[in-house]
Every structure is written in structure tokens, then in C-alpha cells.
Design a protein that fits this description.
This protein has 76 residues and is mostly helical. Helix content is 46%, strand content 0%. It is flat.
């Protein structure tokens, strides 16, 4: 498993896009879910409360507002 020819970090993005396409998930949109933009802060708080281990150990702290902003920029 994996791309033997991968030589730079950006190769992960290429592999992820290929996987999304192969799974038929490349056309999915957050706007197609029940999720609405006004729920982004609530989603960020929920992620930090229920999966806090994903947010520790990084070089910089990710505030809830920044996490909600990631959702906002990802929404299409």
C-alpha cells in the first residue's frame, strides 16, 4: 500500500485526490449534508471535546475559532 514513487510531501495530496476519485467521493460537498455554516463553531467545539487527542502535541494551539474557520473555508 502506498505510492512507491512518492518523494515529496505534496505527493500525499495527489494520492488523496486519487483515492477520493476512486471511491466516488470527489464530488461530495459539505453543503450537501445537513451541516449549515452557522453550525461550524458548534462542530469545532464538538471535535475538540470528543477528539481532543487530535488537537494536542502540535507546534501551535488551534483555537476553536480557527477550527471553525477551516470548516468555513472548506464549505462549498
Amino acid at each position: 500500500m502506498g505510492a512507491e514513487e512518492a518523494s515529496k510531501p505534496e505527493d500525499f495530496i495527489t494520492a488523496l485526490a486519487d483515492l477520493q476519485r476512486e471511491c466516488g467521493a470527489d464530488g461530495l460537498k459539505m453543503s450537501g449534508c445537513v451541516t449549515a455554516p452557522y453550525e461550524f463553531e458548534k462542530m469545532a467545539k464538538n471535535a475538540m471535546d470528543s477528539m481532543c487527542w487530535l488537537f494536542v502535541g502540535g507546534r501551535v494551539e488551534l483555537p476553536i475559532e480557527d477550527c471553525a474557520e477551516i470548516y468555513k473555508k472548506s464549505y462549498r
